[in-house]
Write a structure and sequence with these properties.
single chain; about 325 residues; alpha/beta; 2 domains; 5-stranded mixed β-sheet; Nitrate/nitrite binding protein NrtA
Length: about 325
């Protein structure tokens, strides 16, 4: 059976890419064709319209699509999670210099950011930050980062949508002052001399739920085989011994740029924060381990709470409606775990 699987170029697409490229899908009788999508909105629409059979997808966007909150309503379910964490907030070098926090502690960085944001807003030239999609943990982490500094993001900052592969260029062109995006784009911005990683997502919201495997509820025929293939591929991706090979795979096949050493460092949680080479080691920066694969309905409830807090949806049973879309029963049946 041939399936077309959509993904956006990010390190957390690794289990899907590895399943297609390293034989895990073939072992399950599947031929996976990878479809690199330019943005989350495009992926959402193509999945809803049946142009894709399944996708590597933002958890909140999968829920929003299934609940009719974003784009064409789709009959999606989430039988597997792909990762936890993986995001960071990066700001331009000029903004970091203006912030000038005395230490890298989250509270101090967020407070310094809030001070600049208030001053800019008062002058009529608010800061512009990029997020990958309104329905994303990135949007929620930007809000939580601002709150850590005592700032109401809506009142002081302009937030715009920038697809992950375009974030670095948008920062280079001065279209945004910073962004929250997944690996490896923060590290690529630093390597290009364009910005400074201000905060890691795993500091803002520890073990933050992230990408999922999303597919139509009706496609029970291929779901077990696909779940098993991506699960086994995810186990391979999580093995530190496979990190160099995974970095090469992501560089050569997933569109994440040619710097394999940068990708390997990022996969291992070694983050170079600035042009001066300041290093922060965060083993949980991007979690691909087996413990994250079984979809947790509490993660869907957390997303629902963030949607309500962000004014994206009313609090009218949303949490339980969202939780019902996460299907640990399908994961358990497929994997025998």
């Amino acid at each position: 059976m041939t399936l077309t699987i959509g993904y956006v170029p990010l390190a957390d697409a690794a289990p899907v890419v590895a399943a297609a490229e390293l034989g895990f899908a073939r072992d399950e009788g599947l031929d996976l064709e990878l479809s690199r999508e330019p943005s989350w909105a495009t992926l959402r629409d193509r999945l809803a319209l049946g142009h894709l059979d399944a996708a590597h997808m933002l958890g909140p966007l999968a829920l929003a699509s299934a609940l009719g909150l974003s784009g064409p309503q789709a009959d999606l379910c989430v039988p597997m999670a792909l990762n936890l964490n993986g995001n960071a907030v990066t700001v331009s070098n000029a903004l970091w210099a203006e912030m000038a926090p005395k230490r890298d502690a989250l509270a101090e960085v967020a407070t310094a950011f809030a001070a600049v944001a208030r001053a800019r807003a008062a002058e009529g030239r608010p800061l512009t930050l990029g997020t990958v999609h309104p329905y994303s943990s990135h949007s929620y982490q930007l809000r939580l980062f601002a709150q850590a500094g005592g700032l109401d993001l809506d009142d002081h900052v302009r937030v715009v949508v920038v697809p992950p592969p375009d974030t670095v260029d948008a920062l280079r062109r001065g279209l945004i002052d910073g962004f929250c995006v997944g690996a490896p784009w923060n590290a690529i911005a630093v390597a290009a001399g364009l910005g400074r990683i201000a905060a890691l997502g795993c500091e803002i919201a520890p073990d933050c739920p992230e990408k999922v495997l999303a597919l139509p509820e009706r496609d029970a025929a291929f779901a077990p085989a696909l779940i098993r293939a991506v699960h086994r591929a995810g186990l391979w991706c999580a093995d530190p011994e496979n990190r160099p090979a995974l970095a090469a795979l992501l560089a050569d096949r997933a569109g994440l740029g040619p710097d394999k050493a940068l990708l390997a460092r990022t996969l291992g949680g070694t983050m170079i924060l600035d042009a001066a080479g300041t290093v922060r080691t965060a083993p949980d920066y991007l979690r691909l381990d087996a413990a994250v694969h079984r979809p947790n309905p509490d993660h869907a409830r957390w997303f629902a709470a963030q949607m309500v807090a962000s004014g994206q949806a009313p609090d009218s049973g949303l949490a339980e409606r969202a939780a019902a879309l996460y299907r640990p029963d399908l994961f358990d049946a497929a994997t025998g775990i």
